[in-house]
Each structure stands twice: as structure tokens, then as C-alpha cells.
Amino acid sequence: MARITASVYTSHVPAIGAALDLGKTHEPYWQKVFGGYEYSKQWLQANRPDVIFLVYNDHATAFSLDLIPTFAIGTAAQYQPADEGWGPRPVPVVKGHPELASHIAQSVIQDDFDLTIVNRMDVDHGLTVPLSLMCGQPPRDRFEWPCPVIPFAVNVVQYPVPSGRRCFNLGRAIRKAIESYDEPLNVQIWGTGGMSHQLQGPRAGLINAEWDKRFLDRLIAEPEQLAQVPHIEYVREAGSEGIELVMWLIARGAMSDRPPTVKHRFYHVPASNTAVGHLILENA
After folding, report:
1. Could you tell me the fold of the domain covering 3-282?
2. Handedness of CA 284, 169, 100, 188 (dihedral sign)
3. Res 138 pLDDT > 90
């Protein structure tokens, strides 16, 4: 049967993608950010999965304010990098895994989680920046990402957004679905977004490093309790866009109930106007 072997958590700051694409990774400002992912790239090469289930949020690319699904799973064979206003990122097409994605949709919906099935969509920086950070930057015309990716988009843009509790329990349902798939696949689940940041209003530029680090502690050691944190705390402590962190709870809920092995932990302030957080957890 398929199994989830590890989870990866990372911010997906759009300016990180721009720094990669424009060759700025060795500039003093960006060196500290990308240095935190050197181990991660080596770890992924040594622990290459068959499929990545990648939880992210769309930034008004695949979905506009006219139509916003709470949870949407990509079931297509491939996904083009999106044009977010300045052309698509120069990265490879993302290849999907329609068979596993459809199986997960069937299982999770039968477990009473409503998913939107998406058979065609472009994917923006929320998905491609984590791939670039973990895999390096393969030239679009010559190489591919190391494995198929199942995109899983979560609405954290337009309120009401799903609770941390619902996201954590959804992760458990995704674990059940993957473990019931009749093929010996090594699957990793990635949770992306965050950490603390606010892009508008009087608190624009807010970063709360103390709260972020405590979130990482609790994500590792007490995820069920962390899942009870209400939306208002995310907004108050981590800024209006800090709510993206509920997506990390989906990935954490998909992990084994046993304590995980922490392979890597990284935190840096700032990258653009955002705190960057990163974890790699392996199942015991």
C-alpha cells in the first residue's frame, strides 16, 4: 500500500521565486534565506518520493473572487506555471498523478469532507516556490520536477476560511486515503504558506518571531492542541496573512500519530516582508 513517509513545511514567499528566477540567490540579503534550504535539497535527493501531495493557497490565479472553493484537489495530468501578471515563472510544467488524486478525492469525500475536483488549472507561486526551494531550479526547457505533484488548494484568502481543527482532521482523512491506495508509493505531504506577515493596513509589515517559533514547537510536539487555536489568534498575533498556517495543520494531521523525527528546522526574518519558516518531519 502507499504510505506517507515525511512532511515538509515551508513559506512560499513570491519574492523568493523572483530572487531565484533573477539569479539573486547569492546576494547578501538572500543568502541567509536560501542557506536554510541547502540541507533540505540534499535530504530530498536522498529521500525522493514517488508523489508529493502539496497543500497551498491559490492567489487569485486559478480561482477568482467569483468562485472560491474551500478545498480543491487537482486531478489533472499536468499543470502549467501561472502568469501572475509578469509572465509565468521559468520552471517546468508540474506533472500530476490523476490516479492517486482521484482515489484521495473518492476516499476523503466519503469521509464527509467536501472537495472541489479540478481537472484543469494553472499553479502559481504558492506551489512552484516550495518546489524550487526544495528541488533547486531546473531549467524549464530541459528538466522536470523530480516526481509528480498533487496540488491541493485551500481558501485562506476570503473569509470564512476553514478552522485549524478541520484542517488537521482533513489531514487524517488524507492519510487514510493514501494508505488505502493499492500501490506501494512513497508519498510526502507538504504544507506551505505563512509564517507571520501582513500585507496591508496599519499593521502592514507585521512579523511576530516569538509566536512563529512557538507555532513550530507546537506543530512538532502538540499538533492536536495547536489545531484548536481560533482564527482570531492567527490574525492578532501573526497578521492577516498568518492564517495561511492552518495549511500546515493538514500536512501535520496526515502524519503518523507517533512523534515524528525532526530532520531539519529553519527560521529567518525577513524575506521581503515575511518571516520564513521551514520544517522537515519524518514518520517514526
Report:
1. Protocatechuate 4,5-dioxygenase; Chain B (3.40.830)
2. negative
3. no
